[in-house]
Write a structure and sequence with these properties.
Shape: globular
Largest sheet: 22 strands, antiparallel, barrel
Mean pLDDT: 87
Distance between the termini: 18 Å
Strand content: over 45%
CATH superfamily: TonB-dependent receptor, beta-barrel domain
Structural class: mainly beta
Low-confidence stretches: 1-22
Oligomer: single chain
CATH class: Mainly Beta
CATH topology: Maltoporin, Chain A
Radius of gyration: 27 Å
Length: 820
């Protein structure tokens, strides 16, 4: 199905299949690791069922998250995003260091039973044949563990159906204003092989045309932060001060020949294309009346070209890139779930293994604007080492790029038991283990470095250089030509946990739940983070001091217990109220530039502590007006201690580093409404909202990078959706429908670090869908972003240039599905 950037009415809990249904249907979820209605559990959960996903054209990560009230996503495009819920966010990991040095996500992403959260690169699973998406807001640490301190997203696939043979075919095509066309195809088949064995298979391909232009431009090394005077006001309004000023800011550059990087050979209209292609196979074996085994295998490749962000100083949907931008992101996933009964206990063992490879080229030229040391690599000796005199000579073109290779292997195992769900006293308990290995090799390449000239007129070159010979280094020996820095690091995250929740019905109307989780998490780094200093003309490695095997003699180890307590009041079958206290955590990590200092009393720590959240919540689930009106919501306050954040401050270290930068607080209200008026047959109106007030309450880092009272990142004060779907029966017996929809987001910031922070504007997007269907087929026309709003959905200012991820322009298309 075609990707739609606008989700409207994303909080719909259910949708009608025929106009004659008088009451809003309940949606069954497994958010509490038991099957239950969303209306019967004291948890803030949004369930987007299969029908709702199809009605809204949801296809990928951005589609099902980016417009959900209370849910935002920071990042730079497909396969490069991080999820945030309830405004609990500090920054977005930088792609070129996200894997080994990035923060662990604080929102867990699950594919069925397997957590697949990863620093900086959450798995972008195409939503083919998806049963539902469950969004659990607030800390879910007792049942879902690390990285679920702000919430959990669960992608639940359709399972083999033993009831009979069937399937579905889906096709779509679309045209984007000022962009390239898009098309997609998907096929699903389900068939029983024997009386107790059923298989299901799905295949898909989605080609998404580009809409951003790479336009002509030039840049030279005179724009380096090395020559930037103190007091210069950045585009985000923060002036350059103190140690961040260029140390040659007063130099006379009139005798320097600055050669320009020119992207004329790389200009291209609509250069940001993306293609999702993959398949999934699953088999269900009903062993006997009590036991069954479900196994599955999936694979997907995501190919992307160009970038998905723009430069606001240029015309609409334009950017200037000087080197290649491309990504190939592929994964293979294998899973197995055995479930049955042991005496009176329901037992489940589930395991999974995922192997993911990402190869990416990133234009790194923007680093010029904050990199004071680039002239050392691409300029003549008289510029690089001026010795107090005004420089003269030549600076080569500053077109830079990074080749990034990421390999991830993650295995998880969980065993859990549940007692009778209808009993007055109920329990769910179990144990969990996960092991993640993430190898990241980033080769920072400065092509002009090979033309740098020494004082005696001889080319010094920055190659051949040699990698540190750590036991975990992937590439040993000579670096490729032009590579001046290389991170070749293996990160391991190992987690062991035991968990349990106990519920007790105090009376017919009152019940309570208590839960706890013991966890032990270890994070380790091995390998090399090496530069070319000391390797000029070398024939052996001189970078042993950058060998992380020697630098980090200990792991980052976190062990502790978190808890949860809730009280529920159900005065009637249609009303539920609850109060909740819950905790969540995110494990600590190690800093590659640990020990670096700004010379003013601050030193980058080697180990970062766990950050923790405590959530206080009052919520309600209500079905009113004889079941025709549903209003669910919650009021909450979240206290955040030792909030982790990534910082890029070259006055301290030339690498991104992490710090427990601040304490913070979030106060908010969220809700969703679904109304099916009995007086208008076939109409259903739904909407949702999130109101947030976020604030940094205490600054823990003494660098001047964080301000008390500032808002948190990616935390709009208001987000809202509204949609209305009207269905009616045609004379030929088919059903027609029309669905206008609207989404709104308030302005927000991209970081809590003042020098890395920019503001995103508020936006409104409107769309409409119309079509005809019957029990066998559906045909639809739709227009997304009807007003052609250039919505600023994400962005970053890490390199002192505003780079804004924008919505797809106005897009119209047609899609068709056929059931058999």
């Amino acid at each position: 199905m075609f990707q739609r950037k606008v989700l409207a009415g994303a909080i719909v809990a259910a949708s009608i299949s025929t106009p004659s249904i008088a009451q809003i249907e309940e949606v069954m979820v497994t958010a509490t690791k038991r099957s239950a209605s969303t209306q019967d559990i004291p948890v803030t959960v949004t369930a987007l069922g299969e029908e709702s996903l199809e009605q809204m054209g949801v296809a990928n990560f951005s589609d099902y998250l980016i417009q959900l009230p209370g849910v935002t996503a920071g990042g730079g495009g497909p396969g490069q995003n991080t999820i945030y819920i309830r405004g609990i966010a500090s920054t977005t990991p930088n792609l070129t260091t996200a894997g080994v040095a990035g923060l662990s996500p604080n929102v867990a992403l699950y594919l069925d039973e397997q957590p697949l959260s990863q620093p900086g690169r959450n798995l972008d699973v195409y939503t083919a044949d998806m049963a539902r998406v469950e969004v659990l807001a607030g800390p879910q640490g007792t049942l879902y563990g690390a990285s679920s301190q702000a919430g959990t997203i669960r992608l639940i696939t359709n399972k083999p159906d033993p009831s009979g043979f069937g399937g579905k075919l889906k096709f779509g095509t679309a045209y984007t204003k000022g962009g390239e066309p898009s098309n997609n195809a998907e096929g699903v088949v389900n068939f029983p092989v024997t009386d107790n064995l059923t298989v299901r298979a799905v295949g898909y391909v989605d080609n998404q045309g580009g809409y951003i232009d790479n336009v002509a431009g030039t840049v030279d090394a005179s724009s380096s932060a090395r020559f930037r005077p103190e007091g210069t006001v950045r585009a985000n309004g923060v002036p350059v001060s103190g140690l961040r000023a260029g140390f040659q800011s007063t130099a006379d550059l009139s005798n320097v020949n600055f050669l320009k990087a020119d992207n004329g050979a790389r200009t291209e209209d609509d250069f940001n294309e993306a293609t999702y292609a993959g398949s999934r196979f699953s088999a269900l074996w009903d062993i006997n009346e009590d036991w069954n085994l479900l196994v599955g295998a999936a694979q997907q490749t995501l190919d992307a070209e160009g970038v998905f962000f723009v430069d606001p100083d240029l015309d609409d949907y334009e950017i200037q890139r000087y080197e290649r931008d491309s990504m190939e992101d592929s994964f293979e996933n294998f899973s197995w779930t055995l479930q049955g009964r042991i005496a009176e206990l329901e037992a489940v063992y589930t395991g999974a293994f995922t192997d993911r490879d990402t190869d990416q080229f990133v234009d790194y030229t923007d680093y010029l604007f904050v990199g004071q040391y680039i002239p050392y690599y691409i300029c003549d000796y008289s510029v690089s080492y001026p010795g107090g005199a005004d420089p003269s000579g030549t600076c080569q073109a500053p077109n830079l790029f990074v080749k990034s290779e990421t390999e991830t292997e993650v295995q998880t195992h969980e065993i859990r038991f549940s007692t009778d769900s209808s009993a007055r006293l109920r329990a769910t308990f179990g144990a969990f283990y996960s092991d993640l290995e993430l190898r990241e090799v980033n080769s920072f390449t400065y092509p002009g470095s090979n033309s740098a000239i020494a004082a005696d007129g001889v080319s010094v070159g920055f190659g051949p250089n040699f990698s540190a010979q750590g036991a975990s280094t992937k590439y040993k020996g000579q670096w490729p030509e032009g590579v001046v820095f290389r991170n070749d690091v293996l990160r391991t995250d190992e987690q062991l946990a035991a968990f349990g929740e106990l519920s007790f019905d105090i009376s017919d109307q009152f019940s309570t739940t208590i839960g706890a989780r013991w966890y032990d998490v270890e994070v380790d780094l091995k390998g090399s983070a090496a530069g070319s200093f000391g390797n000029f003309g070398a024939t052996v490695d001189n970078n042993a001091g950058n060998n992380l095997d020697e630098l980090f003699t200990d792991t980052a180890n976190d062990e502790g217990v978190i808890g949860k307590v809730s009280f529920t009041w159900t005065p009637s079958d249609d009303l539920l109220f609850y109060v909740l206290w819950s905790e969540g955590f995110r494990p600590g990590l190690l800093n590659r530039p640990g020990g670096a200092s700004n010379g003013a009393g601050y030193t980058v720590p080697f180990t970062i502590e766990t950050d923790e959240v405590t959530n206080y919540e009052f919520g309600w689930k209500t079905d009113l007006l004889d079941g025709s009106l549903r209003f669910n919501g919650s009021i909450f306050m979240v206290e955040i201690e030792r909030m982790q954040t990534g910082i890029f401050d070259p006055s301290i270290a030339n690498l991104f580093f992490t710090e427990n930068a601040a304490d913070a607080e979030v106060v908010g209200m969220e809700g969703d409404v679904t109304w099916q008026p009995q007086s208008i047959e076939g109409l259903i109106v739904s909407g949702g909202f999130s109101i947030l007030d976020t604030e940094i309450t205490d600054v823990l880092i003494p660098t001047g990078d964080v301000n008390k009272g500032d808002e948190l990142a990616f935390a709009p004060e208001l987000q809202a959706n509204l949609q209305a779907r009207y269905e009616w029966t045609l004379a030929n017996g088919n059903t027609a429908h029309v669905m206008p929809h609207l989404s709104y987001s308030d302005e927000s910031y991209t970081d809590i670090i003042t020098i890395n922070r920019m503001q995103l504007d508020s936006w409104v997007m409107v769309g409409v869908t119309a079509g005809v269907s019957n029990d066998q087929w559906t045909a639809e026309l739709y227009i997304d972003n009807l007003t052609d709003e250039q919505a600023e959905v994400s962005g970053n200012f890490n390199y002192d240039r505003e780079r804004i991820t924008v919505s797809r322009p106005m897009t119209g298309g047609v899609r068709f599905s056929y059931n058999f």
